[in-house]
């Protein structure tokens, strides 16, 4: 890479986003990190990644559940590096309840972060990409962007929406040097899923390890978790020149969950 590419990864202080940030850093991208961290934790993360990979880092603690927060993140990246080459829309939250008991404020919060934040970020970052004739947009949806599961009305609706948004952006940018794809992971062992396993263990009165095994068994035929590192390397490939014609796709990484 002649000039360092600049990547913005939302929700990159934890879990999948952090795995993606680490892979992009390993492939030489400068990073703009984002997530809900204390300034001390964010400084430590920025310094550690900069030192390990010899890249430059910046951090924005913007709350992406509002359009203004997303604008703040994109503007921070533009101000610090002058451009955005790779935008990864990863930040997301979960809440589970039957649809008729689903709290309205949880619905609104999930739609705002898991779907609308990606729209706001793409809308603001895309003009610069089109001007430079190069850009990579990667949305992190879920298998729940392709299939449903009980008690996840807001999450499934938002993730299906994200897959649809990715297709439209790919069509509108086709041939411009910009690509847009949506990654659909199955179970990944992160704080978001650890909480669901703990809830399951408590509800069934079983040990955490058993609940974790049951969770995999139920949906993911490989019975193995997808890892943040595996997703990071996929995103690094999507950001590479080799993926120039790979656009408009929903890519499942799910141990065959959606194959049956
Ligand atoms: P996580 O809870 O480990 O990380 C979420 C990240 O988002 C953190 O950095 C957090 O600080 C940030 N965040 C939360 N609310 C925010 C807000 N309002 N503004 C800005 N940042 C915010 O979760 P994860 O499992 O790594 O999930 C990352 C993405 O991957 C989510 O979109 C999730 O839906 C998706 N996903 C996860 C799994 C899984 O099994 N873990 C599977 C498929 C898809």
Automatic annotation (TrEMBL):
The organism's superkingdom is given as Bacteria
One MF term from GO for this chain?
3-hydroxybutyrate dehydrogenase activity
Looking up InterPro entries in the UniProt record yields: 3-OHbutyrate_DH (IPR011294), NAD(P)-bd_dom_sf (IPR036291), Sc_DH/Rdtase_CS (IPR020904), SDR (IPR050259), SDR_fam (IPR002347)
A Gene Ontology BP annotation from the UniProt entry:
monocarboxylic acid metabolic process
Q: Which residues cross the membrane?
A: none
Matching NCBIfam families, A to Z? PHB_DH, PRK12429.1
The record's comment on protein family reads:
Belongs to the short-chain dehydrogenases/reductases (SDR) family.
Protein name listed in UniProt = 3-hydroxybutyrate dehydrogenase
> What organism does this protein naturally occur in?
Plasticicumulans lactativorans
